[in-house]
Amino acid sequence: MDIFALLMWPIKWVIEAILVGFHWVVTALGGDPGSGLTWVLSIVGLVLVIRSAMIPLTVRQIVSSRKSLEIQPEIQRIQKKYKGKKDQFSREAMQRETMEAYKKAGTNPFASCLPLLVQMPIFLGLVQVLTDANNQKAGVGLLNLDLATLFSNSTLFGVVPLHMTMQGGFAEGSIPVIVTAILLTLIMCATQFYTQLQIMTKNQTPAMKESPMYKQQRILLYIIPVFLLVSAWLFPLGTMFYWLVSNVYTLVQQLIIINKLPTPGSEAALAREARMARKRQRMGLPATDDEPADGAATPQIETKTQRQQPRSKKPKSEREG
């Protein structure tokens, strides 16, 4: 066993345990153990468990992103300080000061990549598990030879084998496989594109939209769907179902985050403040400092004070007279 297989072994074991567990549940509820629908529902359950377990990482990512946003003025100051300096000493000093700024803020520039770094080995593990099952090979754990054979022979609605790929569908001229693969691919691309679009348009501050990273994200907005199209040509339908459900989960999760925990200063944050203000107004509650009752800016209230009468400059004796 090579080092890569050794590292993937525990990941594949957990994936098989969850997949087989949901297959047992669906079968116990009356599902056909050899049906493609039973296996698709098992894959859906696998996605829900894995992505739900990753919620703490997602929350950590949000907190780290907020902290990274707060220190952007300091990062820009450091970059401006060493602008035009190409010597090694200056580059090392800039890198050191930048990392110190991130450390002081309690974050790091790679924190936002953490969920993706965790998802990638899980996805690779799933691909290996389903590939072995398609080849009627027993897995490393609970996915024994009988279950692998059931998965390999399973079909969706009796006409769409889960082990087939879009490429195989075109090669064999299978219209059901081609149509299913195309529909899955279109939904995958649409959900991925819409998720990223919502983040970029509603959950970014004006300062973030002026950064080079934002411009890179705009490029990725159109590159990732192209990557999905290429991948969908090669991946089996069972794997595509996992990818599709994961994309839908991400979309729903991002909509909740944008609605409940938007980035301060973003369009979503302003919209949330307006909603909270209207809600307080309907409930008859007093407006808070940052949530005026009418949803608009808090008006400046002119305070009236009693005018003080001018004192006479004449001596007291003359005033009494």
UniProtKB/TrEMBL annotation:
Residues 272-321 are annotated as: Disordered. Residues 300-309 have a biased composition (Polar residues). The keyword Transport applies. GO terms for molecular function: membrane insertase activity. The chain crosses the membrane at residues 6-26, 38-59, 142-162, 174-194, 219-245. The keyword tRNA-binding does not apply. It is found in: Cell membrane; Membrane. One of its GO terms (cellular component) is plasma membrane. InterPro entries: YidC/ALB3/OXA1/COX18, YidC/Oxa/ALB_C, YidC_ALB_C. Residues 39-258 form the Membrane insertase YidC/Oxa/ALB C-terminal domain. Keywords: Cell membrane, Chaperone, Membrane, Protein transport, Transmembrane, Transmembrane helix, Transport. GO terms for biological process: protein insertion into membrane; protein transport. Its main location: membrane. It is a multi-pass membrane protein. Pfam families: 60KD_IMP (PF02096). Required for the insertion and/or proper folding and/or complex formation of integral membrane proteins into the membrane. Involved in integration of membrane proteins that insert both dependently and independently of the Sec translocase complex, as well as at least some lipoproteins. Aids folding of multispanning membrane proteins. Interacts with the Sec translocase complex via SecD. Specifically interacts with transmembrane segments of nascent integral membrane proteins during membrane integration. Belongs to the OXA1/ALB3/YidC family. Type 1 subfamily. NCBIfam families: PRK01315.1, yidC_oxa1_cterm. This is Membrane protein insertase YidC. It comes from Agrococcus baldri.
